Fold these 3 entries.
Entry 1:
Amino acid sequence: MQTGQIIRALSGFYDVQSEHKIYRTRARGNFRKRKITPLVGDFVEFESESQTESGYILEILERKNEMIRPPVANIDQAVVIVSAVEPDFSLNLLDRFLIYLESLNIQGLVYLTKTDMISDEKYQAIKQSLDYYEKVGYPIFAPRTAFTPEIIQAIEDTFPDKTTVFTGQTGAGKSTLLNHIDPKLNLATAEISQSLNRGKHTTRHIELIPLNDGLVGDTPGFSSLGILNVTSETLVSRYPEFREIGQDCKFRTCQHVMEPKCAVKAAVDAGEIMQSRYTNYLQFRAELKDIRPVYKKSK
Ligand code: ZN
């Protein structure tokens, strides 16, 4: 028996990478009975006589996390691509995405594109905002000149021993960035969209590509984002700086809204917490509270 990680799922076969080799496997029949579908990213126990014949997945190890679209498990980090312009730079959208990543316990990294299309003044303003994000725990890649070898190298240096996905705003230049890292990343996506056109499949696929001792995958872009995987009560825990500073609030369950002696509100007033982080928090909280359960009329 060997252990490995599924990097590709195609027509009932699962390609498993183990010690830098790829094995083609199938899932054992009893998975279906147990209603378990292996996912790309799953760590598995499998047996395989050779790399030329297909082996069998025996067991799927417990998942650290699971993204739904596309279905992929055990993601360690996500590079979020945001655009300086066209589409406009949006801290609101960035916060939404980081909240989602926090809920899945995925480390967020932020890559700023199209910086060559903005003035120095605007660049400095965006950079100043992003410096705040770096300070609270999200590594930032905001090169003044696009796609230099140094910045590509800096991204690749984060890959070893991790599963990384790229995600971002539609039109922010994700494919261009991926092309600079490894054109194979884009090819995997292109093949998928073709088969989507032919067969009207709505399922999103993902393939993980071995790169720099890690696995890397592309995910579809998004243009807007609801607030995913969170309730108005749990939202507060998706902010690393609120978690830390909130320990000094008078009430342990403080939501940092109307409560007295709130350390988070004090930190916002003192400029230690970025105003937009807090304003967006209040906005998301209101959005989440507006979501009411839908009751279907009985016939
Ligand atoms: Zn508070």
Entry 2:
Amino acid sequence: MSLLIRGAHQVVTPLGTAARRGADLARLDVRQRAVVRCENGLIVFVGEEAEHERLFSDCDEVLDAGGGCVLPGFVDPHTHPVWAGSREDEFDRRLRGESYMDIARSGGGINATVRATRAASSEELLGGTLARLDNFLTHGTTTIEAKSGYGLDLETEIRMLEVIRDANRVHSVDLHSTCLAAHEVPPEHRDDPEAWVRLLIEEIHPEIARLGLAEAVDVFCETGVFDLEQTRSLLADAADFGWRIHLHADELTPLGGAELAVELDALSADHLMCVTPAGIAALAGSNTVAVLLPGTSFFLRSHFAPARKLIDAGCAVAVATDCNPGSSPTESMPTILALACLGMGMEVAEAITAATLNAAAAIGRANELGSIEVGKRADLVILDAPSYPHLVYHYGINPVRHVIKGGRIVVADARLIG
Ligand code: NIG
Ligand code: FE
């Protein structure tokens, strides 16, 4: 199966198979009027049309990019896409002045979604997840990292991870699964959080690893949730389980999560709204990707992570939606890119690298995803935009016209077809 994309005004991509840092974050390869050829799911040619004609004969399908821009499909390296219910009531409470943590302490927050998720059938959870995946895809996202964490008991955590596995089988979006059973202390263990930590370490993590349901593990390392010592113990067996580590780090308080992520050689340290200078220095000297979630800052009406300081220090920075029902209910990477630029001071070119190649590095897949280069997977978006800055400049709309996943057209004229 071969596909030729022609008629683009620009083909725009970062280059390479590792996260880009510092000034390199803004270095995009921009080719005017280039064509892209895909065969058997991979990119086999990027360059001038005349050169393509010289090297290749015909192809099965031709897609006209209509003068738009071709970019790598977005990779969203931090999402919580499996849940039941919704929390618009809390949203109104927050607008009236209550804080996210106040609401959590009064029985709302993550535990409100836990109640709804435990009560939902696996079919209902899968249906909700697939609907969200449709939204991811029509907004240009072709791969997501997907966490459990609204079960907080063995049975429901397993059901959530099974939903992620089944969604990955049936939906065009690829899912990289992460066990986040250590997302919160469930109500039944509120009086003895240490018992919950022991249960996670002795039963829940080993059983999920034995079932092969997760590729990675995450912990909400935060004041009032899991402290540094608990987080360290929760992650001690990760390597034995074949799990890479992501960490919710320094989100609401400066606890030192970034330094711990580096100490544990985590793939990513995420949120970082309260990261300290020491945390920034640790990340800069490591391969751990700083995954920033400006949608969460915006939605919680809080401050943004210090993206400029992280970039200028030489950290590998990625961005993600954090898609979840409490602190960032969106699947839209174009929206996140607008917030990365307008809220965190990133340049458009930096934000594009952060949402593609660096996001792929944050899930350990920069060798196969995140750029438009020969040999990479043919995951592409075509924007209805004459030049790539329009992706952010023309904000608040969905600029994605076509999406190609593994060399197949799955969104055409902004409508889902695959
Ligand atoms: O990434 N920080 C912890 N977890 C989520 C919030 C989940 C929720 O509120 O339901 C986050 O922001
Ligand atoms: Fe999160």
Entry 3:
Amino acid sequence: MKKVLITGASCGIGAACAKAFAEKGYSLCLNYNIHKDSAQALAENLTNTYGIDAKAYKCDVSDSSQVKKMFSETGAADVLINNAGISQQKLFTDITDEDWRRMTGVNLDGVFYCSKEASKEMIKKKSGSIINISSMWGQVGASCEVHYSAAKAGVIGLTKALAKELGPSNIRVNCIAPGVIDTDMMSGFDAETKNSLIDETPLFRLGTPEDIAKAVVFLADENSFITGQVLGVNGGFII
Ligand code: NAP
């Protein structure tokens, strides 16, 4: 049975990915930082529904020592989904040093720490797949989200470079750049703002976590000749 470790799997896109991999018979390590109850309930539900092994594991991905402990305690993963992320809207001049460090710590350092630990075992096995969840704002930049955009652009650069380095070890590294996806991350946006985002989307709707999960499973498991790519799943918001 193949194993996937999904960071930030307590809700939203990560939880949808967990369900999609459970449907494929993977065993699951579901990382969370704060929402223990949701992560554990999801693990139990997927175990009961699909007869797979699913466990929730607490770890702040911005802390390298916690990441090392998570990988040493949960063992090697065949697939790593670097999904954990935070967002924040602020004028550039209001972003504090602390805001910057937290944003890049979770969204970029976390991808570095988890990929480093996962790839050690993948290199030994000469097999593996890493999917990084970036954002369309990492591709084109978002006003009032400079720290978020910078971190997500960093994830795209990391993906491309790591794909070149790990390809000879038969490890693929790809990236998904979601558009506007209806999750808790969007809960700070009022209906009017959401409607204006829908208006800007050629497919005229917000994305769902399942839209992203399907793309993740495709890149991780269903094609073995794609690496170093950034797949936009954004309804045409940016083309
Ligand atoms: P979400 O519903 O807010 O979920 C975020 C997840 O990340 C939660 O499971 C959260 O777990 C986890 N997380 C946050 N900080 C963490 C940390 N330090 N360590 C470990 N886990 C942590 O957001 P989402 O929309 O599903 O976002 C998932 C990913 O997609 C993020 O990387 C986000 O930037 C990206 N994305 C989202 C959108 C969108 O429109 N929603 C668009 C583009 C990209 P706890 O709550 O348990 O801490």
